[in-house]
Write a structure and sequence with these properties.
Elements lengths: L9 E5 L3 H13 L3 E5 L2 H9 L5 E5 L7 H10 L5 E6 L4 H9 L4 E4 L4 H16 L13 E4 L2 E4 L4 E4 L2 E3 L3 H11 L6 E2 H8 L7 H19 L5 E4 L3 E4 L10
Parallel strand pairs: 1-2, 1-3, 3-4, 4-5
Antiparallel strand pairs: 6-7, 7-8, 8-9, 10-12, 11-12
Length: 246
């Protein structure tokens, strides 16, 4: 059964091939989403920045402005919009480039419509409700390790009291690591938890996101917050604090 959102989640399609856009739009509308289609890159960027959207399905090869340029502009403007990139480019370098520029997921053409819908549903669930908790792990709304604080309901992160802007997938990765502070999280488990539909080149994707998250945390005042345990995985390092602790 297709996912039926409790509210009209809004999705923007930026795709110049009418046949592909029509198929995606029909499937998303049937699943209960509110869909807008734009075929030009510059119009797509303006529409995405206008607000009111939860996710954009973004083609790479577009007239007016290329998809990777749109993606960089969105992230430079601080947009938290979920971005699923569609492209005929199947090389690892292109996939890593898209993820480095701020994409939340990546799907190559030709693709099965069922897989696209599954990936969109997986992304939308991450902004709609908290992930399933594992037994024995911290499940508080607010987490604090060292000078990094996280509010899972408001989806906000602060470092030393200053707000840190993260993409949806970066936020989910940080939550996953902070829920078990100072404990090693194996690479395979991280990939399975955050890319439940088998993101392509999972190891490369995880490395990209950990690197990006580390850089953002370091720039905000939390260098060394994420530690690599060679051959195993990653962990966050710091003193676990509760609300009211100094």
């Amino acid at each position: 059964m297709p996912h039926k959102p409790l509210r009209k989640d809004s999705i923007l399609i930026v795709e110049d091939e009418a046949r592909i856009a029509s198929s995606i739009s029909t499937a998303l509308t049937g699943a209960g989403y509110d869909v807008t289609w734009v075929s030009d890159g510059r119009d797509g960027l303006r529409t995405a920045l206008s607000g009111g959207f939860d996710l954009v399905v973004l083609d790479v090869m577009l007239p007016g402005m290329k998809g990777f340029d749109i993606l960089r502009e969105l992230r430079a403007a601080g947009s938290p919009l979920l971005v699923l990139v569609l492209t005929s480019r199947d090389g690892v370098e292109d996939r890593v480039r898209g993820l480095t520029d701020g994409a939340d997921d990546y799907l190559t053409k030709p693709f099965y419509l069922e897989e696209l819908m599954a990936r969109i549903d997986a992304l939308m669930r991450r902004i709609g409700r908290p992930a399933h908790e594992e037994s024995g792990k911290l499940n508080e709304v607010k987490l604090r390790v060292g000078n990094v604080s996280l509010n899972r309901v408001r989806r906000e992160v602060t470092v030393g009291g200053n707000k840190l802007e993260l993409t949806t997938r970066e936020f989910d990765l940080l939550v996953y690591l902070m829920r078990v502070p100072n404990a090693v999280r194996p690479r395979a488990k991280i990939i399975n938890a955050l890319w439940s539909y088998g993101s392509q080149s999972g190891d490369h994707v995880l490395d990209v996101y950990v690197g990006r998250l580390r850089n953002r945390l370091a720039d905000a005042g939390a260098p060394g917050f994420i530690e690599t345990v060679r051959g195993v995985g990653y962990r966050v390092i710091g003193t676990v604090l509760t609300e009211g602790d100094e």
